[in-house]
Amino acid sequence: MGSPENGSDEPLTPTGRLVLQKEMNLVIYCAIGMKQPLDVDALKSMIQSSPMFTHPRFCSLLVQDSAGREHWRRTCLDIDRHVIPVYGPIAEGLSDEAAVNEYLVDLSTDLPGFLGDDKPLWDVHLLMAQRCMVFRIHHALGDGISLMSMFLVLCRQVDDPEALPTIRPPSSAKRRRGGGSEWWKAVMRVLGVVWFTLVFVVEFMLRSMWVSDRKTPVSSGAGLELWPRKLATARFWLEDMKAVKSAVANATINDVLFGIISAGLVKYLDHRSPNAVQEGTQITGVAMVNLREQPGLQELSNLMKDNPGLRWGNKVGILLLPVHYHRSCGDPLEYLRKAKSMIDRKKKSLEAHFSYKIGEMVMSYLGARAATLLNYRIFCNTTFSISNMFGPHEEIAAVGNPITYIRVNVSGLPHALTLHMMSYAGRADMQIQVAKDIIPDPEFLAKCFEDALLEMKAAASTALNSKK
């Protein structure tokens, strides 16, 4: 990276600096499947006319000043350096899905060439044989919500070529009206928030120091971000997840997702290493949580405004989500009930907001190295990471070419297992990225997750029929 030479350079945000440290060097990959062959010229034209070609982050080089602090410096973009067609097969004897996943893994090992100081930190790879676009974007440019919102501006609905993809409107909280008899409920809610937040603060600090998960066949640790990777995809139908959700009162899709992960991990561990994990062992996940004032994907115009609650950038906190290993769980829905109970407690705390604010404070007062160490220790002392983002409800197209899937994964975390789910047009695809020397068979793990949902669906159907 070069050094700034003019006063127009813009310093990075604290979170941007954090995700550029070598221990937490995070890069986002988004694979977008297309129904028809890719038109390179049309896609280049689409990108050139998009906000990507005018947004300051996407038009800036990463440079350093004499003190080593990172800055953005505006530059001119060369479309041919950012859009890279890949002709011919990229892997022999593999399905398109497996070939794309292998290409994504290979891209994650090419970071030295990607993180140069001669072009902005993003590119788009066009896999012609697989009819797939792969966006590779450094996390310093923005979080998943920002980046996906920018991409959706380029797309239109298949059924209505003039209409933008549907972005779920923000849910408005209903005000509860109650008389004097309701005051004690409000007091109890406040006390609950204080208590659960305090519990998290203690756990957060302990995890950042020495408390860690017990060793299991899927454990993580320092240095794992550098280990070779494999990638597999688990596929779910949202209707199946909704059917499971309806079997447990007030459950959400996120509850179902974590129930699937809990059940799937138990299945995998029982198959991989029978009797190797002690009953009740805690396996902790780190969930990435959107902290924007409006939930879900955002209107790009809102992200570009100078509104601290909505503006462009990284606005992500973390939750520590425990899974407890139990060999015998006769009712598959029990995984959902336990997941819902745990997540309900998390919702009553300010855990995600606290993690974001403490990271900002440490970065501001103690510097990037201290903030990196804090976050890195938390990831090293837990077992897996997970994120979930809801995409468009309807089928969409880019330059008139219908999109068949949208899949996201992130590289650079010291976890042996990272899970990223993205829903689109009635489906939900979860990218399962593993350290292949620890989890050599991610395809089997994907099947464990898929089977877990099917078992929950069957149990939900039985439970609902018994009530009739």
UniProtKB/TrEMBL annotation:
Keyword Repeat: no
UniProt KW Lyase keyword: no
O-acyltransferase WSD1-like N-terminal domain mapped to chain residues: 61-256
Reactions catalysed according to its record: a long chain fatty alcohol + a fatty acyl-CoA = a long-chain alcohol wax ester + CoA; an acyl-CoA + a 1,2-diacyl-sn-glycerol = a triacyl-sn-glycerol + CoA
Record keywords, A-Z: Acyltransferase, Endoplasmic reticulum, Transferase
InterPro entries, per database record: O-acyltransferase_WSD1-like (IPR045034), O-acyltransferase_WSD1_C (IPR009721), O-acyltransferase_WSD1_N (IPR004255)
Xref: SUPFAM superfamilies: CoA-dependent acyltransferases (SSF52777)
Protein name (Swiss-Prot/TrEMBL): Diacylglycerol O-acyltransferase
